[in-house]
Amino acid sequence: MARRIQLSSPSPSSSVDPDSEAQERILSGLNEDQRAAVTATDGPVMIIAGPGSGKTRTLTHRIAYLLATGKANPYQIIALTFTNKAAREMRERVQRLVGDRTRGMWVGTFHSSFARLLRREIDAIGYSQDFSIYDTDDSKKIVKQQMNRLQLNTDEVKPRSVQRTISSAKNQMVGPQEYTSMAHGRLQEATAKVYPAYEAALKRANALDFDDLLLKPVQLFNQEPKILEKYQQRWQYVHIDEYQDTNHVQYVLAKQLAAGHKNLCVVGDDAQSIYAFRGADISNILSFERDYPDATTVRLERNYRSTENILTLADSIIDQNEDQLDKTLWTDKDGGEKVLLTEALSEKDEAKKVEQKIRDLQLREGLEYSDFAVLYRTNAQSRALEEALRRENVPYRIIGGTSFYQRKEIKDVLAYLKLLVNPNDRASLERVINYPTRGIGAKTQERVRNYASQNDMSMWQAVEQVEQIDTLSTRAKNAVGRFRAIIAKYMSKMDSAPVDDLTRDLIQEAGMLSELRKEHTRENLRRWENVQELVNGIAEYTASADNATLSTFLQEVTLLTDLDGDDDPNTVTLMTLHASKGLEYPVVFITGLEEGLFPLAKATQERTELEEERRLFYVGATRAEERLFLSWARNRYRYGKQEHNTRSRFLDEIDDSVVQTAGGGRLRQKKNRFSSSSKGSTESYDDMDPHYYRKNLRKGSGSSKKGTRRTTRTVSSKSSSSNGSSGRRVVYDEGEGQIVPGVRVQHSKFGEGKVQSVEGEGDRATAVVFFGGDIGNKKLKLKYARLRVIG
DNA sequence: CCCTGTGTCGTCATT
DNA sequence: CGACACAGGG
């Protein structure tokens, strides 16, 4: 955990001597275009780069080059990314290239970098050092509270929508006053009322939301030119990865910072812009040359990742879009396998076919499980895939969904700690005041809240003087008093006790331990292990650097996502198409290619939205190095109801010369191009010649993998890591759920049978299964028998 | 005050 | 289907 959060000393290092050996090393592995981008060290630079062109690598080498030539010392460089993972990889690679010359260099996500900057300058905008960072859930809670207070009907206008509207206003740097003047319509008018109250509530709580982390620095720079100047002086070289994903605030920040030395280097691909929904503004990259007229533009058009067929398909996807920069991708990986399209009857059928293909390739071709990625449009689609993989004991991990720090038990502990650090943090206070339940119910809380607002104090202050609140019964006062005693005790201990001990004791005394021990369920055990892991993480973090405190830990973890883990187990990866950006895999499945799902029904109305969906398809397809599988299901459960689907319009757009259907035929018949009836294509992926793949698989793919170490955590390695089980055992925490009396199962030796009874749990579980013919009943240990449920 | 059962609702992607 | 809000009994 600690390794993820790199803090380095802010002291400027002295000038660096040129290192010609390193320079050579840095340039040697690059092609001509990449080299041009790396050596263009003066003035604004835009690197327009297609997928698989090594664009992040190029950026990395440029930073290393600056260091190796002595043009800059680490202190003068800042690099901004969108994920912590990207930042970590970049830092590691620079270190590999130039050795330990990186101390003082800022490499991080936009959010964590500016949170860090704010920590230093926060006084100037009237917050205190120990501010809390509110995630989207916290923000939503605040919005809801304010709506209640303002007596707005939360049925007519959803707090969620209001929160999103406020967020996008902030992304566009529209403040509360300005917003009010231009609001029209029900949602906007409600938002106009809530917005100022929301801001005030955050301020009172000494809290910043995600958007504030970027917005406040802009305001700070405007308000205090001296501070801006300081950072402009300091960062002579500003680098931004994935520039097409920047929103307006980020754009302004980049402009402010780079205005000093004008050495702004951005990397991006307009064709991979898939984050418009969270405010990313594609025009930032499209108009870079207009913003910086003396900019050097370098195009990286050579693709090192994918085969020709995959690239042809990808090109044919993106060709349908009108808005894009000119760019032609090419590769010298000729041909390759055709892209295989499979039609399934249902999402279960689709999942089964994916699973079969994975096992088939893994067994026959010796591919690792980690060579496979299965992509989908919405997180809900992962369920069917998970079930299919679990049934066959294929290890998998899911990226996204709820990450470690979003688990309830983790958020509970974090809330306790946030409260200690920042007593004004009302969201955290309310989260833990009655968890575990200690007799402070809704009514009591409301009375405390009222007392606080009537006396113009924070809720914690009201808790501190609970005896004065005469609306409360003695019983309630006692309950609140007990809570206060616990919190106060640990507040006073904070500076003296080591944080991990403090946390452990607090968990115990607050009653979380006994809460989790109350019932001996698997779930509770897992939760407890997660809490332990958190405590270890805190200890590790605070020991890692001098200025790594509990307060900074709490700020940093809010900004971590699932993509930032650091395990590298041999598992199949399941994730959304969005989460796949920047990653690569030898074999990629894109599932759920159905009209209404991908593209989503909502997106089909607007051309711009449809184009974003198409770019998403493009991103997904270009993740594949060797093989790409597309699939869709005729029927799919949505909202608990089965829906009948037609195949995605995208399938009618793509170049069908590189596509083969599972039945062996062409994707489209030449004559009736738009017929969606495909014949005989319900066969599985297995129908093709199994040896075809081995013959054509490149040997080189193993080594190319090293560059992009995939470092995401396994679903259950979280829970198994503390009980010391090996990394191989992944994923099966739900037990052998499907094996119950009555179901039909398949056994590798005995064939089909019917489960009669099941006994025991976990590894000891056994089932009596009746098989036909002269086999009869068999008692099987589920751990070894690998039964497959077939109905 | 707390737990449980029932009904309601909706769901895209995320730092 | 599943998360979540709300009502009613313990």
From TrEMBL:
Residues 28-307 form the UvrD-like helicase ATP-binding domain. Residues 8-17, 713-729 have a biased composition (Low complexity). It comes from the Bacteria. Keywords: ATP-binding, DNA-binding, Helicase, Hydrolase, Isomerase, Nucleotide-binding. Residues 674-683 have a biased composition (Polar residues). One of its GO terms (molecular function) is ATP hydrolysis activity. Pfam families: UvrD-helicase, UvrD_C. This is DNA 3'-5' helicase. Residues 1-22, 662-736 are annotated as: Disordered. GO terms for biological process: recombinational repair; response to radiation. One of its GO terms (cellular component) is cytosol. Belongs to the helicase family. UvrD subfamily. It is an enzyme of class 5 (isomerase). It comes from Longimonas halophila. Residues 308-582 form the UvrD-like helicase C-terminal domain. It catalyses: ATP + H2O = ADP + phosphate + H(+); Couples ATP hydrolysis with the unwinding of duplex DNA by translocating in the 3'-5' direction. ATP binds at A49, G50, P51, G52, S53, G54, K55, T56. Its EC number is 5.6.2.4.
